[in-house]
Design goal:
Elements: H1 2-7, E1 15-18, H2 25-34, E2 43-47, H3 56-61, H4 78-81, E3 86-90, H5 97-109, E4 111-112, E5 121-122, E6 126-131, H6 135-140, H7 146-152, E7 155-158, H8 169-184, E8 190-191, H9 193-200, H10 207-221, E9 226-227
Parallel strand pairs: 1-6, 1-7, 2-3, 3-6, 8-9
Antiparallel strand pairs: 4-5
Helix pairs in contact: 5-7, 8-10
């Protein structure tokens, strides 16, 4: 993925990031932006699943004063805010069919119209979208437009779950320990060998997000110099990988 990001540094094509929840799609999107020719421009992040259905068009494209009840002044939408930079559309599969049509037009024409506006506004924005949904299946069920999919899927980056890249676990765990120690002023020196062995035996259904939460909790509860395997235990520890256990 790092090598692919490096190759994308001079590209301006749309990117589609896929993978399970918690694998780090937003982190990868940020790296793509920071290593691109648009790095000096803004990066606007939008969680499509969190947008109000009644206001999603206004949020993305903006609106003119008086466009609807309550529109007391002009609003600049997220796409305009991203001019000269990148817009990251997380959970893209959650947008409604009518907004999908408008997004398709944005990608095709590189312009938008504010709600209540009459003049098109040219855009200079790179689009990075992300989803944990298998879009091929969503398309078959009629939930996602195939033409929008192909517009977004110019460059596809599949981010594997943490259980498939166990060599990353200890590196990330040490990184998160250092972050928490710096943040809290703790005197903890790091992870014990037993703790690292415990982490490598876990499957992490919540991926990197789960690992980060476990480390944050361990730093908060550890009363020793080194984090032990016991410090990593959670109230509902279902993450132990038993795939290689003989029953």
């Amino acid at each position: 993925i790092e090598r692919l990001i490096a190759r994308l540094s001079e590209s301006d094509s749309s990117v589609l990031l896929t993978g399970e929840s918690g694998v780090g799609k937003e982190v990868v999107a940020t790296l793509i932006h920071n290593n691109s020719l648009r790095a000096q421009g803004p990066m606007i992040k939008v969680n499509c699943a969190a947008l109000s259905p009644s206001l999603v068009e206004s949020e993305l494209f903006g609106h003119e004063k008086g466009a609807f009840t309550g529109a007391m002044q002009q609003r600049i939408g997220r796409f305009e805010q991203a001019q000269g930079g990148t817009i990251f559309l997380d959970e893209i599969a959650e947008v409604s069919p009518d907004i999908q049509v408008k997004l398709l037009r944005v990608l095709q024409e590189h312009e938008i119209e504010r709600v209540g506006g009459t003049e098109p506004i040219s855009l200079d924005v790179r689009v990075i979208a992300a989803t944990q949904v298998v879009l091929d299946e969503s398309i078959k069920k009629g939930g996602f437009r195939s033409d929008l999919y192909w517009r977004l899927n110019v460059i596809h980056v599949e981010i594997p779950p943490l259980r498939q890249r166990k060599e990353d676990i200890i590196y990330l765990a040490r990184l998160f320990v250092n972050e928490q120690v710096t943040k809290t002023g703790s005197t903890i020196k790091g992870l014990s060998k037993e703790a690292e062995f415990q982490l490598q035996s876990m499957s992490f259904p919540g991926n990197v997000r789960e690992l980060k939460n476990i480390i944050e909790r361990a730093v908060a509860l550890c009363d020793s110099t080194w984090i032990s395997a016991i410090d990593l235990q959670t109230q509902n520890n279902n993450s132990v990988d038993t795939s290689n256990t003989t029953l």
